[in-house]
From TrEMBL:
InterPro entries: ODP_dom (IPR045761), RibonucZ/Hydroxyglut_hydro (IPR036866)
Lineage: Bacteria, Pseudomonadati, Pseudomonadota, Alphaproteobacteria, Acetobacterales
Domain ODP: 29-167
Source taxon at top rank: Bacteria
Protein name per its UniProtKB record: MBL fold metallo-hydrolase
Length: 249
């Protein structure tokens, strides 16, 4: 395995490792995002066992000890499994996550005390980069789920939203909704809940220009339309699940 690096927006780098054995023949990517600034931030730590690969990749951009923030979308192995390895490699770095995730998991799991981010709170990285944390509970999964929005580039760090198979490109202007619907049909990875359509539509209101997918290519274009279409599909799934349930009672 190797980790590929692409700059997907100004000062935002995608570190991508492709695993062909997951959901073959298409395979599956695991992507970390490095946002540069006076206080560089990495979104997702990657799997613990991928730490050597990701550490070597990051070192091609900046020394790991320059990292100041370790953030991610929800508490799960690919999102934060290597957190403590990164904290050891970056002595000045602080883990940052939403209130639920910090109080439920990080205050115990993290080797360094986390910064607890309120919904909407901004981490100012300097050099114009500002990352806003947004709570998205149970969307697509995880009580503690959240995303981050980089305001200067209008880049939404989507976490598992839009998860899709394959590894044909780092950045696309093409369809990311159809492949996400197909991956949801395959994996059933989302915690369907009545609020998720509205939660995803609230992200569309940010009008992102770039969607940084944890599993799949990054997307450049009309992020609001893509998010609205994804929200519509989840509304369809939730309504269908409720209809199926009420039909049996
Ligand atoms: Fe996840
Ligand atoms: Fe993930």
């Amino acid at each position: 395995m190797e980790t590929r690096i692409d700059e997907i927006a100004d000062g935002i780098f995608r570190l991508s490792t492709f695993v062909p054995d997951i959901a073959p023949p298409a395979g599956f990517t695991f992507n970390q995002f490095l946002v540069l600034g006076d206080e560089p931030l990495m979104f997702h730590t990657g799997l613990r066992r991928m730490f050597p690969l990701n550490h070597a990749a990051l070192a091609r951009i900046i020394p790991a000890e320059h990292l100041r923030w370790i953030a991610f979308g929800h508490f799960e192995a690919d999102e934060c499994g290597a957190m403590n390895e990164w904290l050891a490699a970056a002595p000045q770095a602080t883990p940052a996550h939403g209130q639920t995730g910090c109080l439920v998991s990080l205050t115990d799991f993290a080797d360094r005390a986390p910064r607890i981010l309120a919904d909407g709170e901004v981490i100012n990285l300097g050099r114009g980069k500002r990352l806003r944390f947004i709570d998205t509970p149970h969307t697509p999964h995880g009580w503690d789920a959240g995303v981050m929005f980089e305001e200067s580039t209008r880049t939404l760090l989507c976490g598992d939203l839009f998860t899709q198979l394959g590894n044909d490109r780092a950045l696309t202007e093409g369809d990311v909704v159809g492949p996400a619907i197909a991956a949801e049909d395959l994996f059933r990875y989302s915690a369907l809940n009545p609020a998720m359509g509205a939660t995803i539509r609230s992200l569309a209101a940010l009008a992102p220009r770039t969607l940084a997918l944890m599993h799949g290519p990054s997307f450049t274009g009309d992020g609001a339309t893509a998010l609205s279409a994804l929200a519509d599909d989840y509304d369809r799934r939730v309504s269908g699940a409720v209809r199926a349930m009420t039909a049996t009672v």
